[in-house]
Every structure is written in structure tokens, then in C-alpha cells.
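Summary for the funding panel

The consortium committed to producing paired sequence-structure records for every protein in the target list. Below we show the first two records in order, beginning with the earlier of the two.
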Amino acid sequence: QVQFVESGGGLVQPGGSLRLSCAASGSIFTFGTMGWYRQAPGKQRELVATITSGSSTNYADSVKGRFTVSRDNVKNMVSLQMNSLKPDDTAAYYCNTPWETRSWGQGTQVTVSS
């Protein structure tokens, strides 16, 4: 039942960087568009970045210019490079398929604090 396994989170100071990875069970090529989500305590899960099968990307305004999503169809993984991190970026991060939501993984925790 586990289709996505997120990793790479951790504790980082404001202005720092992290790179998250999403390993997929099943082909992301057939999954199509992939997305990164985050959920902070007491807040709704939000979509922060998407990448299509053709590697076209879109970002939420809150992360635009700081985050970069990429995919490797050969390695069957999706990544999220996060730069210039802010305390507001603190959340559990998940990957999934926006157009056909599959089972959620455990997520990976990102904490931005001094």
C-alpha cells in the first residue's frame, strides 16, 4: 500500500537549505504530474510545488524563487530543493499525485529554527 517514501527532512537554521526526496513504488512516469505538499501543526495540507511528466513546474507563491522541484524518471524519484528557508516553512512534507491522490506516506519533518 505504501507508494511514496519521503526523506531528507531535518532541523535547519533560517536561511539554510535542505533537499527532500520522494521514492515511489510504481512508475512516476505513469503517475504523471507529481506534487509536494506540506502540513504545519494546526493548518491544512497545502500544495507547494508540482512537476509534470514533461518537467514543467509550478509553485505556490509562498515558495516561488526559493524551492525547486525536479524528477528523475530513471531513478523513479522526485526531489524538492529548498533554499533560503524560513520559520514559516516548518511543516511535514509529503509527495503525491495531485490529479489522482494515492495513499499518503509518513512524510518528512522540516523544522526551521534558530
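The next record, for a separate protein in the list, is shown here:
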Amino acid sequence: QVQLVESGGGLVQAGGSLRLSCAASRRTVGSYAMGWLRQAPGKEREFVAAIYWYDGSAYYADSVKGRFTISRDNAKNSVYLQMNSLKPEDTAVYYCAAKRGVPSYDPNYDYWGQGTQVTVSS
């Protein structure tokens, strides 16, 4: 079983930045993806960003392109999400997630962290 632990959430004003971190308990053998999904109050969980570990390619939701950047640290089995120019509509619980194979743009992932709250004030 892969354990995922998120950190870095918090309260920030609109236009500010946050950096989320997610550490996996172990390095997964084979092709897999790690990324971030979020769920805002009253809304369904949605894809934010993911990275394909095999080649490092990144995937982003249209709503965050140009503002968020996903990155990885192979040595630490970790993935990060740098969030800039935050908007109130970015307010959500952000979940680190992983799956076997290539990333997907829907919330169909195999492993989940407990989530970290990101709140962007108006």
C-alpha cells in the first residue's frame, strides 16, 4: 500500500502563493502518475495537475494553466504544487493522489492522501 501525506495548505490572500508538498511512502515500481486534485465546498472533486513519473511530463487543468506548476523530487519520492496568483475560486481541499499508468484528467486515481485545506480570501 502506498501512503501519501500532503502538507503546505493554509490561508492566503488573493494574488498570493502557496506551495503544496506530497510525500509517498515508497518509490513505486513501473509507470505511474502522481498529482493533485481538489474539492471545493458544494462541488465535485476535480483534477488540478499531475506528473507522469516515467518521463516527467506535466498535465494541468485549464483553470490553473499558467498559474500552477507541478514538479517532482525522485530522491524524496515527492511531488510539489507551486500555486501562484491564487484566486478565491481556488479555495478547496487539495488531495495528493497517485495511480498506475499515465495521468488522467478525471479523479480516477488509485491512492489518496488525507487532503490539505487551501483557503484564498477575497
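Regarding this second record: The chain has a mean pLDDT of 94. The radius of gyration is 13 Å.
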